[in-house]
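Lecture notes, unit on binding sites. The following record was shown on slide 14. It pairs a sequence with magnesium ion.
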Amino acid sequence: MTHIASILSTLQVESVTPHILRIPLDKPVTTPMGVVDSTIAVLVNVKTTAGEEGWGEVWCNFPRFGAYHRAVIVNKVISPFLKSRSFAGPYEAFHAMHKAANVIRLQSGETGPFSAAIAGVDIALWDIVGKREKQPIWKLLGGKSGSIQAYGSLGRSKGFEPLVEEGLKRGFRAFKLRCWGNPDQHIDAYVKARAMVGPDVDLMADANSSFPLENAVEWANKFKDVKLAFLEEAIPVDSPLDAWKTLSAGAPMRIAGGENMIDTNTITTATNSGVYGVLQPDMTKFGGFSGLMDLSHQIVAKGIRFCPHMFSAAPGLMASAHLLAASNSPDGSLEYGIEYNPPRDEFIQREVTNGRIEIGDAPGLGMTLDSAKMDKYRVAVPAY
Ligand SMILES: [Mg+2]
């Protein structure tokens, strides 16, 4: 196995530019994480002094206004540091960025925004190195195949029918619905969905941390008859390990989580805990390729399904696809939001065939971003 740290390719960065894309929603949606009033994404463009260019993405889904702050962190903290010296490769740059930002991260208590900003830049640096080496990132990082599983992810359970119907037509063979709060409100939808997709298509549920600890096992069992492939984030990620163990022992399906694990130790502990049947770190939230490649190999080696979390724009989706392929997970699956998402769908189109996506052999992330299309959605990054 190629170790990611051994892939060296000198980087001298000339510019690091965040772009915020925002599309207001006609009907805001209330979630356990707050009101969603727009589709929003922070994309990062990195250019080297040799004229090379790469794209990355910084997680900013909640709260929506956090996108502006993260873009300013890229401009004011990450960019000046990255331009100040050269690096032997993206892996070295990633660790150097974390080290350089460590004191302000601790002082501000803002681990999330800083980790996400660094992750987005790391993705862009790997895009550059992939293009330079004329290889797709999945292959550069040791992946054996560019064909990956993907599952259709829905932001709700009510009104799922047309989305699942269309998803089946598009080629998806697994679907995840949301189940915020007591499953009694959702179980009819799951029963209908199971009848609709038949016994051979996977169904999953995502509770977004909304089950009270004392009810978690009982509520998980309410889904017993619909045979879920996994139940995601039934309880908050920072619940005591004993609560997770109790849930895992008492639930009739695999326990999933990981999108809110934003440091190496937390992901390593979860991997070794025996609790999780599915782990879902989000590489635009923490780690990029440099921070998550080794961890994904550890997850796969434990027999845990590696299913990268992704609910955002084109660079994040492509990067997650490459990471999954590079992990060589035999049963991993990429989250793919099934509804129209302009910052993703206007820039990339990927066919789903029998539940799988072909990433392809184009160098780097294998995508380009049309500047004129970006202009339609671009909002200003605060000057500060
Ligand atoms: Mg989730």
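Take-home: The radius of gyration is 20 Å.
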